[in-house]
Protein 1
Amino acid sequence: NRDYFLQFLGGFQSIVIVARVCLTSNLPKNSSRVDSNKIAFIPLPDWLGPISFMKNYYMTLSILKKELPESAAYLLTMPSIISITLYKFLRKQPYAVHVVGDPEQSFSGRTSLFFYFSKIFFTFWQKKICDRSVVAIYVAESLKNLYPSQAKTGSIVVSDIIINRKDILKRIKRFNFKLKQ
């Protein structure tokens, strides 16, 4: 939602989100708007799965080449096929990473060849992209250890949970229940 993205604004005037976009009249349940005068989008074609991604790959590259700002600070959220694709444009300029998951763990325990190669592919790129980042933000210490950054400016571990004031109890709430034996 909007609050999630605005937390990355920091000292910047605006942020641009690169995302797959699909026009629909049926919004999924629990959808939330992201509109703000400080948030813009670079819409990519919508795809689902590797075959659909490959069909849209060259169009995606064309859009990124045309739409990416020349002068910008980049934050790549990992793991993400969009971030891996963006990396092609950022190899010679500084960027930061926001590591929110472990592809090694996400694809483990699945027996199909597709998941086996996905695990290898995403893990390889996540390690490479994290290693070359100038700043790294991790949502867990374990991710920092698995996907270290060589950033001279350091890396930090911070939770990505957003707690609103209305979610905080003003007084202790007691629950009385008995355990079944």
Note: The mean pLDDT is 86.
Protein 2
Amino acid sequence: MILGIDLGGTNLCMGLVDNGIVVRTISVPSFSPSSCVEETLEYMSGHISSVMSSDIRRIGIGVPSVVDINQGIVYNAANIPSWEEVHLKEFLEDRFRIPVSVNNDANCYAMGAYGTYPAESKPEVLVTVTLGTGIGIGVVDHGRLVCGANCGAGELGYLPYKDSCLEDYCSRQFFDRHGVKPHEAYAAAQAGDIGSLRLFEEFGRHLGHALMVLMYAYDPSHIVFGGGIAKALPLFREAMEKYVRERYPFPGNFAKLQIDVRTENEIPIIGASLI
């Protein structure tokens, strides 16, 4: 049994994973932004203790940050102000006396999404794009997670774009710019609101640009969208693909690209168990 943990800005999600299957999940609110490092670590370890048993042989945890994967040190975690440098692996191994692996949350999602494909049809090169508060990108190349030298592979949301960066136009931040929450825009678009439908079309064009960047960088066989906004793919897919078809110089490659959606809550937990 492996304990997989997905640490987000809103929730701390834990799951007991047995041979790739989640047999139990627990979700609690994440840390208060005002909590100090010591308070956050005690809060996390307290909830881990509540599910810990002799059957659990390892812990895997995904965090919204760049990570020293070998040492398990977390740097400048998004939405956790006190986590500027946290020796998470060392702390948890000292506390629970079992091996601990730490990685970026987008990388964990990528490994979990890769695991959803049957053995006979695994992607050659999978790129995952989580559309949430920000944009998270993970890459799995022929079954191997691509992390880079500093766990920074895939941080393409910071690339300059228009007056800011890609992330500002390809995540919830795009909707914030327009003064609306994504789920509100989705509900209105589903009801036929013209303004909301046009908003998702514009979002699709921005995401089309991001898609081209991913194809230039990784030449994926598959792209998987995750996160809450991914559920709205039917509202922005046409505009996204039209943008790419009109600009991408290798139409044959784009025609072969398989685009999927995976929004199951268990995927990041399974991925964390695999790192």
Note: The mean pLDDT is 95.
